[in-house]
């Protein structure tokens, strides 16, 4: 077998395992949000820290929003782990990341140039999570997901 046919065979076989990358990304990000939300909901020190972060960022109703955001992280993280309602979970968690970027993360960037600012911005974990959530949201449903179950056809009555 020459090198070109070996490479072609390898790439063909590798394509068959593409679902594994999507599964790992979905479960890893889901676990991250699930554990983060769990800590903020059930550990008083973490809940107080979250509330203080929202106060410092001048987010309205910090006590209510601390619980709301934590509940979204917890429940949507669990949905991602299970692969259930994945598009909905990705959209809600993307909203959390956009608000986190806008209220706290971007304000903390201190860079003398545009390229320096962009470098720091792209290094923020919220940006990475947002990119992964968008990728998971836009991918086709992989085999290891509850979202794949068939839906009955819609019945239209006349």
Q: What descriptive keywords fit this protein?
A:
disordered C terminus, flat, mainly alpha
Give the termini distance in whole angstroms: 62 Å
> How would a textbook summarize the main sheet?
none
Number of helical stretches of at least 4 residues: 7
Q: What best-fitting shape do the alpha-carbon axes yield? A: flat
Average residue-wise pLDDT: 87
Please report the total strand number as a whole number: 0
| Secondary structure: helix percent | over 70%
Query: How many independent structural domains?
Result: 1
Rounded to an integer in angstroms, the radius of gyration calculated over CA atoms is 20 Å
Low-confidence stretches: 153-158
Strand content: under 5%
Assign the structural class, choosing from mainly alpha, mainly beta, alpha/beta, alpha+beta, or little secondary structure. Answer: mainly alpha
Query: H/E series, N to C?
Result: HHHHHHH
Verbal overview:
The protein has helices at residues 3-15, 18-42, 44-56, 62-82, 86-105, 114-123, 125-138. The protein contains seven helices and no strands. The protein has one domain (24-141). It is flat, with a radius of gyration of 20 Å. It is mostly helical and 158 residues long.
């Amino acid at each position: 077998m020459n090198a070109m046919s070996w490479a072609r065979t390898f790439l063909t076989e590798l394509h068959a395992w593409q679902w594994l990358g999507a599964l790992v990304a979905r479960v890893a990000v889901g676990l991250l949000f699930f554990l983060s939300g769990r800590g903020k909901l059930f550990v008083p020190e973490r809940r107080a820290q979250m509330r203080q972060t929202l106060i410092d960022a001048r987010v309205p109703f910090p006590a209510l929003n601390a619980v709301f955001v934590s509940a979204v992280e917890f429940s949507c993280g669990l949905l991602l782990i299970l692969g259930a309602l994945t598009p909905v979970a990705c959209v809600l968690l993307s909203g959390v990341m956009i608000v986190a970027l806008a209220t706290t993360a971007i304000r903390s960037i201190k860079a003398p140039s545009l390229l320096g600012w962009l470098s720091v911005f792209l290094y923020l974990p919220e940006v990475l999570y947002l990119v992964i959530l968008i990728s998971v949201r836009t991918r086709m449903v992989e085999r290891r997901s509850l979202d794949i179950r068939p839906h009955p056809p819609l019945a239209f009555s006349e």
